[in-house]
Design a protein that fits this description.
Largest sheet: 2 strands, antiparallel
Number of domains: 1
Number of helices: 20
Shape: globular
Number of strands: 2
Strand content: under 5%
Helix content: over 70%
CATH class: Mainly Alpha
Distance between the termini: 58 Å
CATH architecture: Up-down Bundle
Radius of gyration: 22 Å
Structural class: mainly alpha
């Protein structure tokens, strides 16, 4: 059995390296750069507009109101997307990036996020433009729909229709599989490890049947029970939970991180300096070693960046498409804010906690922590240095909230993928299987499932980015149309709202009446 698992690990390693290093990262960053130029550096030159319409709109009732019972509000869609993106990647993922690529990896996380803002924006614009209602009256959207109806639209040559349909199916298959890895077992496993370490490490309970750890099993069963109540209830119940939990958990974590950072206030400047210094490894070392370290910094930073904010995966668009918004660009603005909040705020807080903790030598960029410290518990140990045991408890609870809400968000992504591949009736079966696998994740000791899910992330990213790039002219047209109407004040232009003529007419009438 061990030889079989080792073979799988080797094969997965080869695929992962090809998908992420040789193809994925270049495609990811390239798409972000192209969409940034296509939209005229929207994230910079319209900073005030998107901030006003997102974080400013949080305090406006239009962001919280729903115009129909089958949809979710714009704020609920954001919180559900953030629930899926703000997970263990924001804590353990950032620590892993720094340990693997040095402080310079943080710089490349920022680079990936800067361009990822417009990738996520484009995904959401296309998701809203190509969505449609399912038999239950809910909006269904995502990469599979803009691949099939955009890249492979009815007016396209037969070859493109075939390519679009094939890529749509591949994306949905990889998304459904990734939901069990990144969105379920990997997250629950981190919860069980950290909860067991923080609260139950002194308990010596023999494994059940000699192989199943009891405490993780109990944790898994409890999470499964709570998860079942929420997940089986569908997107509206998930969104209702997310809009209450996400702002609380993110705010609490940022507050705790700020306390840690300012307790080492004298190191903040040095920490920032090390980020830029080691981004290009200006330290005089052998050329080959320098090249390797730069490659590791770029790879780890970009890879962990997209793992955290998911820009380019095409995942969060599946919940953004459930929003009651009529203007595609309006939901695109929330996509920009999603990446900003996830990486530039939450991940940056974690990075500064790690870099000012004393576990990283800011002069050499090397990890100097003690025995038993890994990327999984590095942030907890950093909090523990300031708060003692309560600091580690705080991180265990933060990971519980971050990871569990990620499970909730990804259950919806997987549901939408299954709905596309089979039908609406199959979704309930998927959700039941999904919650059962939470127990499997809790008692699992192997990191193989996590590594495989990392590969599925890359595999679903590739068809999605092909779709975004192929539809870049459409994103340009929709964005320019919105900017002319909403920013430049031109009133004689018809809005671009949907590829479907019936939805276009219905939404256009509502927009003109001021319902949007």
């Amino acid at each position: 059995m061990s030889e079989f698992l080792k073979s799988i690990e080797e094969v997965n390693g080869i695929i992962n390296d090809y998908v992420w290093v040789k193809v994925g990262l270049w495609l990811l960053i390239g798409t972000g750069i192209i969409m940034t130029f296509i939209t005229g550096f929207f994230q910079i030159f319209h900073l005030g507009h998107w901030m006003k319409k997102t974080i400013g709109g949080v305090f406006h009732k239009s962001s919280h109101n729903k115009n129909d019972s089958a949809s979710v509000s714009q704020f609920q869609a954001l919180c559900t997307a953030l629930a899926a993106t703000i997970g263990t990647g924001n804590i353990a993922g950032v620590a892993a990036a720094i340990m693997g690529g040095g402080p310079g990896a943080v710089f490349w996380m920022w680079v990936a996020a800067f361009f990822g803002m417009m990738t996520n924006f484009s995904e959401n614009v296309l998701g809203i433009f190509f969505r449609r209602k399912n038999k239950n009256g809910e909006w269904s959207g995502g990469a599979m729909y803009y691949l099939k109806d955009g890249l492979g639209g009815k007016n396209k040559p037969k070859f493109f229709r075939g390519i679009g349909s094939a890529l749509a199916v591949l994306f949905a298959v990889f998304a459904a599989l990734a939901a069990f890895g990144i969105g379920n077992m990997g997250q629950v496993n981190k919860i069980a490890i950290n909860m067991n370490s923080a609260f139950f490490s002194k308990l010596e309970i023999p494994p059940l049947f000699g192989v199943i750890p009891v405490i993780p099993l109990i944790i898994g069963i409890v999470l499964m029970a709570v998860g079942a109540v929420i997940i089986i209830g569908g997107v509206k119940r998930i969104a209702a939970v997310a809009e209450k939990v996400v702002p609380f958990m993110a705010g609490l974590y940022i507050l705790g991180a700020l306390v840690i950072i300012f307790s080492h206030v004298s190191l903040i400047g040095t920490a920032f300096l090390s980020i830029f210094k080691f981004a290009f490894n200006t330290k005089a070392v052998a050329g080959g070693a320098a090249g390797y370290l730069i490659k590791e910094a770029i790879t780890q930073g970009c890879k962990r960046g997209v793992f955290s904010n998911e820009a380019g995966l095409g995942s969060s668009v599946m919940v953004h498409s459930n929003s009651d918004v009529k203007e595609p660009v309006k939901q695109g603005l929330w996509g920009i804010f999603e990446v900003f909040a996830d990486t530039f705020v939450v991940c940056s807080m974690t990075a500064l906690v790690v870099l000012t903790s004393g576990f990283i030598d800011l002069e050499t960029g090397m990890f100097v922590g003690g025995e038993g410290i890994s990327d999984a518990n590095l942030v907890a140990k950093a909090f523990g240095r300031v708060f003692g045991a309560p600091g580690e408890w705080f991180i265990a609870i933060a990971i519980l909230l971050f990871a569990f809400t990620t499970v909730l968000g990804w259950s919806h992504y997987g549901s939408k993928a299954v709905e596309y591949l089979i039908n609406e009736k199959a979704v309930l079966v998927f959700r039941i299987i999904f919650v059962v696998f939470m127990v499997v994740g809790a008692v699992s000791e192997s990191s193989l499932a996590w590594d495989i899910s990392d590969t599925f992330n890359g595999l679903m990213m590739i068809p999605n980015l092909i779709g975004v790039l192929s539809l870049a002219p459409l994103v340009f047209s929709i964005t320019r149309n919105y900017a002319n109407r909403k920013i430049r004040g031109k009133t004689d232009i018809a809005p671009m709202l949907s590829f479907d003529p019936d939805i276009q007419r219905e939404h256009e009438a509502m927009v003109r009446e001021g319902a949007e």
